[in-house]
Amino acid sequence: MDAAESAFRLLCTGPEPLAVDCARIGHKLPRRRVPLVELRDVLLDRATTEAAREAVWRQLVIAAQTSDPAWVLGAVGVALPGLRKAAGELATGYTGDVEDIDAEILAGFTTRLKEIDPDAGSLGPRLVWAAQRAGAKLRAAEWDYAARTVPRWESFEPRQPDQGHPELVLAEAVREGVLTEAEASLIADTRLDDIHLYEAAEKLGDSYFRVLRAREKAEAALISWLGAERPPKKSKSVCKKSA
């Protein structure tokens, strides 16, 4: 992400910096072409309205999808504060290389940037959320792999996933046998992504109502599992720590 920041700043310097004509956008933004590095600060300002943020992000998305590839990096640079926050949350307690999480977050962001509907609304949060999901998938896979590959004769108490990241919760539910991988994928696609249920049904080659019932059954099992009391741990030290 430091490399992305450096490249972003290079694009915003010189005689022709990457900039947005805010005079055409309105919403009390500066009535001139504003370099993206300056525009990022404007968007972070509490005085800036949500309507202004949404209008700017719409311009960034359209430019990234239709103009020079530099605009993709420009959009990444504007979103970096949110992306860094997401990366920091996912890196807490992560036993792998945190740069892998950064890479997945950036890849998830750029992939979603190229396909999102500019009129979808809440573009900034949607893009950051897609990036966070990509990083969470990597962390969930690493955590699940570690839980599966520790030898039986070693004492191993897997860390509980961060309840703030739905992908990790779904991965734990699959590991515990509460959900199948297909059920977890259906919930993630239709609840966390922008995939409509009818699109999921077409992808699965099944009827809308059969897929709807399958999701309802899976979600009922998930809710029951999340609300159930967990059996106490055998280790007293772990019990004290949990308490």
Can you tell me about this structure?
The chain has 243 residues and is an all-alpha fold. Helices cover 66% and strands 2% of the residues. It has eleven helices and two strands, in the order αββαααααααααα. The protein has helices at 2-11, 36-44, 50-66, 70-91, 98-115, 123-149, 166-175, 181-192, 197-204, 208-227, 236-242, and strands at residues 19-21, 33-35. A two-stranded antiparallel ribbon has the order 1-2.
What's the number of helices?
11
Shape: globular
- What is the C-alpha radius of gyration, as a whole number of Å? 21 Å
> Element order, helices and strands?
HEEHHHHHHHHHH
Q: Approximately how much helix is present in the residues? A: 55-70%
* Terminal-residue CA separation: 37 Å
Overall residue-averaged pLDDT value:
80
Low-confidence spans: pLDDT under 50, at least 5 residues? 145-162, 230-243
Sequence of strands across the biggest β-sheet: 1-2
Structural class: mainly alpha
Please outline what is shown here.
The protein is mainly α. 66% of the residues lie in helices and 2% in strands. A two-stranded antiparallel sheet has the order 1-2.
